[in-house]
Amino acid sequence: xxxxxxxxxxxxxxxxxxxxxxxxxxxxxxxxxxxxxxxxxxxxxxxxxxxxxxxxxxxxxxxxxxxxxxxxxxxxx
Length: 77
What we know:
Blueprint: H1 9-17, E1 23-26, E2 32-34, H2 38-50, E3 58-61, H3 64-74
Antiparallel strand pairs: 1-2, 1-3
């Protein structure tokens, strides 16, 4: 799943923190960022969102309920 560029990074990370399973961003080169890691959140997420790099990343959500919750947040009907 892709993350839209207009996504509110703070609200998105708050949602990720409520997830039961792993939530990761993967780059085209295969680099993986664990979004459930507080250290990863502080060091990289703000930069990724603010520089538009997020459109190149793939969001991987391992728990089906988490996936549905995040999908509803990112792509409201």
